[in-house]
Amino acid sequence: MAPTFASMELSQDTKNILGLHLPTDPRWVNLAEKSLGEILTDHAYCEQKAATSCISLIQRYSDREKLVAELAPVVTEEWGHFRLVLAELQKRDLKLGKQRKDEYVNALLDFQVKGGSPEDNLLDRLLTMAMIEARSCERFKRLSERLEDEYLRSFYRRFMESEAGHYTLFIELAETYIDKEKVRKRWKEWLDHEAEIMEHLVVRGDRIH
Ligand SMILES: [Fe+2]
Ligand SMILES: [Fe+2]
């Protein structure tokens, strides 16, 4: 079973595993709180993209039994997340609206190896997913700790726990098919690069990332 952040106090191990170099700017939660409708819409699309990306991985790597078996239920889970966020929007008489430009994810995609070997491509696809899950988990943790509204704090805590499990799953899948040392080395490069992206990204309250 994938580990989850069952407690608000993350163990040192979990923090190390998550490994993000830059914590989220503390101002972000305050900004997000002021534009909750925008945050919910952006969040809904994050969940939709997570489900869609898992389906793409299953289609592309249909010969990898473990990947197919492990990601099939994640599609259901991510789609369930989408529906939960959609229900929150509806509860507030808000509309889903159009998908926003996702500068964070676009910057991550630019870092994926171009024209590499099939193994390198698989590795980067899985690590991109792991990266987005890890940062989303960290953002949901901030919301679960600092939002004023108690209901929303627990709402986001559930997402935090779930995305932590997904983060570890994608790393595990990478280690299933690719040499562990190679996975570790490339993951370090992803972490360094992600920190650079975060440093240059404008902090805005209408985006999850
Ligand atoms: Fe999710
Ligand atoms: Fe996820």
How would you explain this protein's 3D organization?
With 209 residues, the protein is mainly alpha-helical. It has one domain: Ferritin, CATH 1.20.1260. 74% of the residues lie in helices and 0% in strands. It is built from eight helices and no strands. It has helices at residues 12-18, 27-34, 36-60, 65-91, 103-111, 118-146, 150-177, 180-200. Helix 3 (36-60) runs antiparallel to helix 4 (65-91), helix 4 runs antiparallel to helix 7 (150-177) and helix 6 runs antiparallel to helix 7. The longest helix is centred in the middle third of the chain and has 29 residues, at 118-146. It is globular, with a radius of gyration of 17 Å. The two termini are 27 Å apart. The model is unreliable at 1-11 (pLDDT under 50). Bound molecules: fe (ii) ion (2 copies). One fe (ii) ion binds next to helix 7.
Overall number of strands:
0
Q: Give the C-level CATH assignment.
A: Mainly Alpha
Do you know the CATH topology? Ferritin
Bound ligands, each once: fe (ii) ion
The CATH superfamily turns out to be Ferritin, core subunit, four-helix bundle
Main sheet summary = none
Per DSSP, the total helix count is 8
Stretches with pLDDT under 50, minimum 5 residues: 1-11
CATH architecture label name: Up-down Bundle
**What is the mean pLDDT?**
90
Question: SSE string, helix = H, strand = E?
Answer: HHHHHHHH
Beta-strand residue percentage: under 5%
Percent of residues in helices? over 70%
User: Which structural class best describes the helix and strand composition?
Assistant: mainly alpha
Count of the domains: 1
Distance linking N and C termini: 27 Å
